[in-house]
Amino acid sequence: MDAPIIPPKPRPGDRVAVVSPAAGLPGVLPLPYELGLRRLVEEFDLKPVEYPTTRTMGASPQARAADLHAAFADPEIKAVIASIGGDDQITVVPHLDAELIRANPKPFFGFSDNTNLLDFLWGLGIVGYHGASVMTQFGRPGAMHPMTAASARAALFTTGPYELAEPGRITEEIRDWADPATFEQEPATEPVPGWTWHHADRVVEGPTWGGCLEVLAGMLMADRIKEPEAYAGHVLLLETSEELPSADTVWRTLRAMGERGLLRQFPALLMGRAMAWNFEKRNDRAARETYRAEQRAAVLRALAAYAPDTLAVFDVDLGHTEPQQVVPYGGRVRVDGPARRITVHY
Q: Are residues 62 and 124 in the same domain?
């Protein structure tokens, strides 16, 4: 694979596109969205620009693709930021103009269902950024988490190495985004243990690929994944969503990746701290710990069967985590087992 294209970064005062290529939830839940827009302006000195489908639920895949084309083609737009995720971005990808986007590379920020678009950019050789959506990170109640804000700022405006940190405390329970009272104070936090390392006797450095496991499963079924050798030497990013897939589901998905010959291509894995609470499954602390332990066991089972030498780090704060840290997608990361350090390159 050729050297990746790292798009030029925006500067304070620049215009950035805010798009909804997955779901137009800003039109349904405006409070976190409007708050996120204000923070982009007031705290990051950026000028957000909306598109026709940004606040439109049920917009057609063609219309959402058209918004992406407009954002990437506009020379005044210096970055593209997803409002939030969704569940059908896989239908948008076939309508994307690869040549237009390749000719106008820009930093794209998003995660969850935006795994589809991050993978599309990776296939074009363009580095994207897994994380920092408007409603979830910029629109956090009370204030942006300092760890998230520092990571997002570094990814937006700087280049070079950035060391990820362990937060010590995280937010587990989410409050109602439709209730204005939710945004009057920061969410409660709880202490958590640090990262868990597996085969940490080595250093691995390489470009990243992966994303939300449930989305990757859909991409596998739709035959959107390249031949296994295309991923050789990459660091695999995996995380699960607020849908709380069971440990059996995680195992079966990874087993399928193993049978396809994918898992053994990755010398290292960064596994996001599993979200373990939603409004339908209001797990207490013990249940949340059990859920994460069972997921970790499922991943280790898959690695033992298909990639026994892979270095793995669990409970990294990427993807559906609070706080969240931005990880480059297709950019380089250094996983230093002996030093217990993870350094990304923005």
A: yes
For residue 246, which of 284, 307, 298, 173 has the smallest C-alpha distance? 298
CB 17 within 8 A of CB 51: yes
Q: Which residue from 97, 47, 50 is spatially nearest to 69, judged by alpha carbons?
A: 97
Question: Is the domain of 136 the same as that of 24?
Answer: yes
- Nearest-5° Cα angle at 93, 89 to 98: 150
| pTM recorded for the entire structure | 0.97
Residue 66 falls within a domain, yes or no? yes
Which residues neighbour 139 within 8 Å (Cβ) at sequence distance 6 or greater? 31, 32, 33, 34, 35, 36, 39
The per-residue pLDDT string of the chain (346 residues; one tens digit each, 9 = 90 and over) reads 678 999 999 999 999 999 999 999 999 999 999 999 999 999 999 999 999 999 999 999 999 999 999 999 999 999 999 999 999 999 999 999 999 999 999 999 999 999 999 999 999 999 999 999 999 999 999 999 999 999 999 999 999 999 999 999 999 999 999 999 999 999 999 999 999 999 999 999 999 999 999 999 999 999 999 999 999 999 999 999 999 999 999 999 999 999 999 999 999 999 999 999 999 999 999 999 999 999 999 999 999 999 999 999 999 999 999 999 999 999 999 999 999 999 999 9
Amino acid 279 reads: F
- CATH number, domain of 121, equals 3.40.50.10740
Domain end marker among 106, 127, 160: 160
- Shared-domain flag, residues 250 and 187: yes
H/E stretch holding 198: strand 196-198
